[in-house]
Amino acid sequence: MSGHSEDPVAEESKRFFTFFNLSMALAAITGLEIVIIYVQAFESKVIIGVLFTTSVLKFFGVVWWFMHLRWDKILNTVLFLMGLVIALGTYFAVIYMADHPIDIENFEVTALEDAWKAGSDYEVGAYVKHEESYYQAKSAHTAGESFDVNSTTEGEKPSFWMKVEGIPHKISWKVNQADLIEINSRKPGNPFFHMYQPEDTEKVQGTVIRVLAKAATSSDFRLKARSEAFWGETE
């Protein structure tokens, strides 16, 4: 009787290229996931959907890997276990992200309209509006009977107010969780950027007052919040 058996070299070569091609595919999918997370080219819901799909693809890739695995090869075993950890890690990370979304509970941008009042106490840096112009207090003081940039107090003429070129705005936010807050203007003609990294990442809230070139509202700004490499933003 005569017979033949498969060439062991060819079989091993085929097995090697199976592992190699699958490794490259898993690496490419992981690279795509990193780009999607950090570049933020899509909305949050789309990102979660894409990541869920890629995690499923990686899981089936690892299963295919297992079907072609020869356990007498230590390197193959190590690569398989690494692929399994990456696939399962991505899957559970996506589930966590879906169950712990970033919720921007409040975001407001309002122009300050506090009119100057005689007899009022003002702190350093306070903004007031007087005769369609805005001023900032240069020192803490109690306002006199009439508004004067150089009011007289006890025979002296200290400069209490400084005229502001622009409109002061109060920008406030409240987010359920975040380790980074970014706020920027949507309009080039009214530039603004603010970045904030809170120490406490739960129930993050804050307020800043900035002078803008033009009057603005919340719709003129974008707030982005990051929590563990996952982003959420205002519409």
TrEMBL record:
GO cellular component: plasma membrane
Transmembrane regions listed in the UniProt entry: 16-39, 46-66, 78-98
Cross-referenced Pfam families: COX4_pro
Primary location group: membrane
Keyword terms: Cell membrane, Membrane, Transmembrane, Transmembrane helix
Keyword Cell membrane attached: yes
Listed name of the protein: Uncharacterized protein
Membrane association type: Multi-pass membrane protein
Localization, UniProt: Cell membrane
